[in-house]
Amino acid sequence: MLRNLHLPSLLGCILLLSGCLYDHPPSGPTQSIDTWLIGQWATKDKAGREFTAVMAPSSSSHYHLSIAGKGSSPREFDGWISRVDDFSILTLKSLNEGSDFGKYSLYHYELLSPGAPPPGGIGVTRIRISELQLDESCRSLDSYRLRAAIRLALKDGSLLAPYDVVAARKEKGVEVPGSIVWSKTGGVTLRGETFQ
User: Fold this and answer.
1) What would the pLDDT profile of 47-66 be if each residue is shown by its tens digit?
2) Higher pLDDT residue, 26 or 166?
3) For 157-168, how does the pLDDT look when each residue is reduced to its tens digit (9 = 90+)?
4) pLDDT value of residue 61
5) For residue 59, which of 150, 190, 182 has the smallest C-alpha distance?
6) How far from 22 is each of 3, 17, 85, CA to CA, in Å?
7) Most buried of 41, 69, 139, 192, CB within 10 angstroms?
8) What are phi and psi of 124, to 5 degrees?
9) Phi and psi (nearest 5°) for 22?
């Protein structure tokens, strides 16, 4: 069973660190956070490198996301859900010092049916994260024009890559998967409230 939440979100270091960065977000927060995204998450790339993420609420409309590869310093992000018509986008703003500071990454996510359960247990929650496939010319657009470009890509069906496609980033010489599946490994407790 695939439940499409029409929201974007948790991503992979692989997607974040090599993904397109935008000068402006499509919009500010347009809805409350989705609590399905809150928790501790893990994934592996094709080379077997492990990545972990912790997504916690920082307000009723913002997330705080920390992502790290094994043995590397975490990357920190402020996140919220933007909308373009009925399509929701997890917008992440880099909080780390350097050339990415203050830039935005845009993602779509889908809640997948649980993974295979262990004997006598329940399968783990999984989320598929996909980077928006916008032309590089969209990187410096203001929010209004960025929303227009997203609408156009939605209309022509080019906004999301097929799940098994790998997109080449020519400027960095890196291949990026069309999507990454994250598995929930634990909950988050914040101000006495636990999110599983």
Assistant:
1) 788 889 999 999 999 999 99
2) 26
3) 999 877 655 444
4) 95
5) 190
6) 28, 13, 20
7) 41
8) -80, 145
9) -115, 150
The single residue listed with the structure tokens 């359960």 is 117
DSSP letters along 126-193, please? EEEEEEB---GGGTT--HHHHHHHHHHHHHHT-SB--TT-EEEETTTTEEEESEEEEEEEE-EEETTE
Q: Answer whether 175's CB lies under 8 Å from 46's CB.
A: no
What whole-number distance in Å separates Cα of residue 45 and Cα of residue 179? 11
- Residue 154 is predicted with a pLDDT of 95
Q: Is 102 in contact with 93 (CB distance < 8 Å)?
A: yes
pLDDT at residue 190 above 70? no
How many angstroms separate the CA atoms of 61 and 63, rounded?
A: 7
Distances (CA, A) of 186 to 12, 40, 55: 17, 5, 11
